[in-house]
Specification:
Blueprint lengths: L4 E5 L5 H11 L4 E4 L9 H4 L9 E4 L2 E4 L1 H11 L13 H22 L17 H12 L12 H15 L7 H11 L2 H19 L1
Parallel strand pairs: 1-2
Antiparallel strand pairs: 1-3, 3-4
Helix pairs in contact: 1-3, 1-6, 1-8, 3-6, 4-5, 4-6, 6-7
Length: about 210
């Protein structure tokens, strides 16, 4: 009997990234919806994620938090889905997963709150400046392939989610390369299924 896979999420959160990844994986999982507020900060949930945030997964006795880490874990835990390159060909895969979790996230968040790194201090900040991050991201996704090569992978789930949300909320520029890349990804059946599940959960929560 395989270990149970439990997904802790809220439909109004980054949990949508992991939902998409789970749907791409094609494995059965149980969803635990966690409300914002006291429940998310309760001792029971803090035992899952000490940050008191979603998403998180529990796979048997293994708990994983942080979206990029969850995506990478699921790709390795369920290799039959083909969501990670072969072990000797993962340079670009790891590079862009962690680029999105680090420089991209930091640059976008800083811009959203009106923070600009002083030019003379850019070398002290991991992402340098927002423009450089956007240029690097554009080069990563331009063309007809995917971020880690010619095959769709978990890195596309994570990087693509950042780009899709960023363009929707105007925190990432709507460059042609970003729009073309997101158009390819958002048409995937697994993305559509996951989005429908989260939309339904959000709607149900609003009616309660």
């Amino acid at each position: 009997m395989s270990a149970e896979l439990v997904f802790y999420t809220n439909p109004m959160s980054r949990g949508r990234i992991v939902r998409w990844m789970l749907e791409e994986s094609g494995v059965p999982y149980r969803t635990e919806l966690v409300e914002f507020g006291p429940i998310m900060k309760s001792p029971e949930y803090l035992a899952v994620n000490p940050m008191g945030k979603v998403p998180a997964i529990r796979h048997g006795d293994t708990v994983v938090t942080e979206c990029a880490a969850i995506c990478a874990y699921l790709a390795d835990a369920f290799p039959e889905a083909g969501l990670a390159p072969p072990s000797g060909q993962r340079g670009a895969y790891y590079r862009w997963l962690f680029f999105a979790a680090g420089p991209l996230e930091a640059a976008v968040t800083g811009r959203m709150f009106g923070f600009a790194v002083p030019v003379d201090k850019e070398s002290m900040v991991g992402y340098g400046n927002y423009a450089n991050v956007m240029d690097a991201l554009e080069k990563a996704v331009e063309g007809d392939g995917y971020v880690a090569g010619e095959t769709f992978s978990a890195a596309d789930v994570y990087v693509g989610s950042h780009i899709g949300w960023g363009m929707q909320y105007d925190t990432i520029e709507k460059r042609p390369a970003f729009e073309a890349y997101w158009s390819r990804l958002s048409g995937r059946e697994a993305y559509q299924r996951g989005n429908a599940l989260d939309d339904a959960a959000a709607s149900a929560g609003e009616k309660e």
